Amino acid sequence: MRNCEYQQIDPLALSVAPASVQNHADKKVERPRRKWEVFPGKNRFFCDGRVIVARQSGVLPLTLGLIVVTCGLFFAFDCPFLVKHLTVFIPVIGGVLFVFVVLSLLRTSFTDPGILPRATLDEAADIEKQIDTSGSSSYRPPPRTKEILINQQVVKLKYCFTCKMFRPPRTSHCSLCDNCVERFDHHCPWVGNCVGKRNYRFFYSFIISLSFLTSFIFGCVIAHITLRSQSGKSLIQAIQESPASVVELVICFFSIWSILGLSGFHTYLVASNLTTNEDIKGSWSSKRGAEESGNPYTHNSILANCCATLCGPMPPSLIDRRGFLPPEESVPAASTSEIELPSFAAKNDANMCTQSTKDVLERMRHSSAFYGLCLPGTPKTTPVGLEVTGGAPARDPETSPAPTLCSPFSRRSTSDSLHSINPAFRLASPSPSLARVTLVLGEAPDVSFIALT
Amino acid sequence: MATTNFNCSLFNNDQAATQNTHSLQELQQPVVSTKVFIQRDYSSGTLCKFQNKFPTELESRLDRQHFEETIQTLNNLYAEAEKLGGKSYLEGCLACLTAYTIFLCMETQYEKVLKKVAKYIKDQNEKVYIPRSLLLTDPIERGLRVVEITVFEDRSFVPTS
């Protein structure tokens, strides 16, 4: 009897993707997946979610290579001479700077820049309700902006069609990483990551320390060649004796211009509490009309701005990379949101194009998930120990026709899956459902007694 | 059989339950009626602060006072986390000097406050929200964008009294 009712559901599920459902069920039991595995943005993860980089690592290997090679040549060819003729502190200082540069670079590259998790379906629906769409007969929704007052300054918040939310102030969507990043500065190809709220201080310390390192190496190499040519030899001879120094000179010469310039620019940004993005767009420049549009985020003091940007409290990562997906959530719904709310996707054509193949696959898995929820021994019931025992006898006196079993259940599971399946990285159900389940467990026996009497 | 009676009573009483054979599950899993989202308040900048406006959907369930107290406490906690003071500067400078490796072994001020927030929300849920068939979700689960309050249908939820 138990098998009968579910077998009637099975053919429908089978026609969609039976093997995948079964495999999913097996896989769910075998290996709990971490949230980074279903992250919707274009990022890559290493060390089981501990390390996050952009999909295109850009020129990061080149950056690292250049730094390591230049410093290697410096320590190998210039330092012995300089230690003999000058002081032993030269390689020590060089070493300290080198370590600092590499650590800052790796920290910038591998830290979450302040990615905002995408809105859950419920949130997106709520926002959609609040937006006045009366009278818009056109297929494309009008551009969505919201004006708010920040420190008596009007700021426009834009709606992000990918992340399905109004972007907080200073947040921008990076198309390379496909994420909204808080306090978005820029996407740096040298570092292979976005520079945002969480890793700006690392980026700044990287470029400052790199300026010092390149200047230091440049100075030391000049000193080296000068000292060599002073002891009776010509400059050409000195260069011939130490060819590596020329390589270092060339690299440092070209680097210094760009790195020092960048450091100066970012020092200005830090001092005025601006981001590269805002500066380039001229968001707060006084050129904009007669009204005074100053930066509403500034603390009106260079020191305060510097301290706030560089030494402020370290915000946490909002994407829980290493958290475990609860078993019922392991059907990712990155593109399910596209299915549920097609009006959102209308504007974001590019996103739809890239998602089109994934869409088809996700639709299959999504519909199988509805029926999967009807299957016995569904993980949905496993957190509640009582349900497993209570559910079994409930199935026995099954008199209502089987097809109607699944449709209301799928209706309910629609709301549940709206509740549970969500494109956001931080998932809805785990803590609330577990929390409510643990509290409800205490009531369940009483409830059943009430029903019986 | 007890279980048959159980199902029958539900058949008689509740139309929704007649359609649903997973009756025991239905009772144990309260049905979500709606979700209310408290958005961020950006009037003082990018600091984490939530709007204190009492949502109309909760008027029948919750006192304005309770709601405002919850939001205000959350706002105060997040303000404490993001406070620019001697302690945060010291933490920042120390981190800078150690090339930020200190974050690998030390918990930041923000993380400590987040733990306090989690504890407070759990506490509020137990004392105020769950007895009224509501559930507060920790904003960190939503990327600090919203405070989500889930409203459950009263009939399927037995409140603790």
Q: In a few lines, what is going on in this structure?
A:
Chain A is built from 17 helices and ten strands. With 453 residues, chain A is mainly alpha-helical.
Question: Can you walk through the features of this model?
Answer:
The complex is a heterodimer of chains A (453) and B (161). Chain A is 56% helix and 8% strand. Chain A has helices at residues 2-16, 18-30, 60-85, 89-110, 121-130, 200-230, 235-241, 243-271, 276-281, 302-310, 336-340, 342-345, 349-372, 385-395, 402-420, 430-441, 444-452, and strands at residues 43-46, 51-54, 115-116, 145-150, 153-160, 165-166, 172-174, 179-181, 186-188, 193-195. In chain A, the strands form four sheets. A three-stranded antiparallel sheet of chain A has the order 3-8-7, with no helix packed on it. The model of chain A is unreliable at 1-10, 12-22, 24-28, 329-350 and 368-453 (pLDDT under 50). By secondary structure, chain B is of the alpha+beta class. In chain B, helix 4 runs antiparallel to helix 6 (109-129). The chains are: A mainly alpha (453), B alpha+beta (161). Chains A and B meet through helix 4, helix 5, strand 4, helix 6 and helix 10 of A and helix 1, helix 2, helix 3, strand 1 and helix 5 of B.
